[in-house]
């Protein structure tokens, strides 16, 4: 049985922890509103970009002049996994769920005899994956010094990916992130960005004729837009991750605060019972001594 002093120290320690988790919950709630607005604002642009690329690809005749970012290399032997996670923890299963999805994807590819390379965007994903895939990790992007995510941060990652693709270092690139749905729902997502997976729309044919006339030609426009689309999709993933991280942290800290409150209640009850038992024992000793006299 712990002493009363030990119980008082435990209660004080848990109360201090509860104050920290409550403060972190409030900070996450404040950051979530801004991060959610940024993520929701980026979605229409990314979706519209896909529509434009779909219209262009629908009017493009497949051939040797097709952009490599759309047609691919003709092989699927080497895969690049771009794993986007948070720079900090204390956000529940947010980081581990993304890393688990990437790990399962990498294991499946390796079992099929494919070559896997990994770029980690975020320290937590790097810490998790390096235990099993240390030899496959070729780069690590540290964003801890970035206070507000900007398009230039996504462009930094995209330029590394595009350079590796131009040098023939991989054939297929897949982006891993967590899509924000709500405070309690973040969906780990895998999205192939190279070659671009686009729902094509036919520009002509039949009675409808062409909906758009492009000048210059579709191939030339796609050559300019496809690299930008890679940056746009990575930027969207980073914004979705930022909102998901704050939502997950808000939920995790709320649960931690509740658990701390329950622990304080149990420890307080134990303290009161121990104190009452000690008082009762002292009274019995006093009464017994008085009767003995």
If you had to describe this structure to a student in words, what would you say it looks like?
By secondary structure, this protein is of the alpha/beta class. Helices cover 61% and strands 14% of the residues. The protein has a five-stranded mixed sheet, with helices on both faces. The longest helix has 75 residues. The chain is elongated.
Which outline best applies?
elongated
The profile of the biggest β sheet is: 5 strands, mixed
Q: Name the assembly state.
A: single chain
Provide the helix percentage.
55-70%
Distance between the termini: 33 Å
Mean pLDDT rating: 86
The radius of gyration is: 28 Å
Give unreliable regions as ranges: 202-209
Jot down its keywords.
293 residues; alpha/beta; 5-stranded mixed β-sheet; 6 helices
List the helices and strands and how they pair.
Elements (H helix, E strand, L loop, with lengths): L3 H55 L9 H4 L6 E7 L9 H18 L3 E7 L1 H11 L3 E5 L9 H16 L5 E11 L2 E10 L23 H75 L1
Parallel strand pairs: 1-2, 1-4, 2-3
Antiparallel strand pairs: 4-5
